[in-house]
Specification:
This protein is α+β, with helices and mostly antiparallel strands. It has a single domain, classed as Alpha carbonic anhydrase (Carbonic Anhydrase II). The protein is about 20% helix and about 25% strand. The strands form 2 sheets. Strands 2, 3, 4, 5, 6, 7, 10, 11, 12, 13, 14, 15 and 16 form a 13-stranded mixed β-sheet that branches. A 3-stranded mixed β-sheet has the order 1-8-9, with no helix packed on it. A hairpin with a 6-residue loop joins β6 (about 100-105) and β7 (about 110-120). It starts with a helix and ends in a 7-residue tail after the last helix.
Length: about 300
């Protein structure tokens, strides 16, 4: 009996050490050599991560509703060249943006100015986006973070329920390299270790995203930051048309390192429950979803069951 108690105590001790609290991390980082709070325990890092309106989500296109207010965006100074610093912050790569570029219209409640952009990715070009579309996970996702134009810092903006607007873009694999991304890809080789940073040559936000005429189809919902503190103050826009990178370009992101020297891969939060939220779509998005909704309405009117 005493031996059993000793064994139990040793196992319990081992489990505590292996799963013990530490900094928050992605699931790909967790190991007994690196105990940390994985996504399912982010509430230990910040209780907001247990909120009801968390991001990212799986967007089920047939359940989205059209919203006539979701007109094309007004992008101002997105063509403006700027020289930013790209940094490996231990969880992603991030680039600060001078407050010159703004977005408005698009059903937004205000004008928002760009603050920074960062990315989330998988492993060597494998699934890695945070949002998913009908369960499909893309290789990578870009988040351009904006705050209402009258705020001077992101922390203050996050105290406003609609203080932050994030534009999300998916990446897909292409047969050839996207040369507009050369400044980013080349810089990644200089910031492999956590805390490393380097200056970028002059770039614009416009060169990183699809042409403006291809940005009229998108989804909209209210959600949160996708890392702790998970603050629920984000107006999310997720665009339908992806950005294209070659598999070799995508793989360079997986050469970055977490602070413990392990490959920085799988840098995405799993999708979160909707908890009753409605996802809306712009007029041009998912035409097929409109047909599905119409069929469902007809079936309901006729008293017929319609498959989900």
């Amino acid at each position: 009996m005493q031996q059993q108690l000793i064994l139990f105590a040793l196992l319990a001790s081992s489990w505590t050490i292996c799963t013990g609290a530490g900094d928050w991390c992605y699931q790909s980082q967790f190991s007994c050599d690196h105990p940390c709070n994985g996504p399912e325990k982010w509430n230990h890092a910040d209780r907001n991560c247990d909120g009801r309106y968390q991001s990212p989500i799986n967007i089920v296109t047939r359940k989205t509703l059209p919203d006539e207010r979701l007109k094309p965006f007004q992008f101002d100074n997105y063509q403006q060249l700027f020289r930013g610093t790209i940094k490996n912050n231990g969880h992603s790569v991030q680039v600060g943006i001078p407050h010159l570029s703004t977005i408005s219209e698009g059903g937004l409640p205000s004008t928002y100015k760009a603050v920074q952009f960062h990315l989330h990715w998988g492993n060597n070009g494998g699934p890695g986006s945070e949002h998913t579309i009908d369960g499909e996970q893309y290789p990578m996702e870009l988040h351009i973070v904006h705050m209402k134009h009258h705020y001077t810092d992101l922390k203050t903006a996050l105290s406003d329920p609609e203080g932050v607007a994030v534009l999300g873009f998916f990446y897909d694999r292409s047969s050839g390299a996207n040369r507009k991304y050369d400044p980013i890809i080349n810089a990644l080789r200089s910031i492999k270790t956590t805390g490393a940073n380097t200056s970028l040559p002059a770039i614009s936000l416009a060169q990183l995203i699809p042409p403006e005429q291809n940005l009229t189809t998108y989804y909209r919902y209210k959600g949160s930051l996708t890392t702790p503190g998970c603050t629920e103050a984000v107006v999310w826009t997720v665009f339908e048309n992806p950005i294209h990178l070659s598999i070799d370009q995508l793989r360079v992101f997986s050469e970055l390192k977490f602070h413990d020297g392990q490959p920085m891969v799988g840098t995405f939060r799993p999708v979160q429950p909707l908890n009753g939220r409605q996802v809306y779509r712009s007029g041009g998005a998912v035409i097929l979803a409109s047909s599905a909704l119409l069929m469902a309405a007809i079936a309901t009117a006729l008293g017929l069951s319609h498959p989900n």
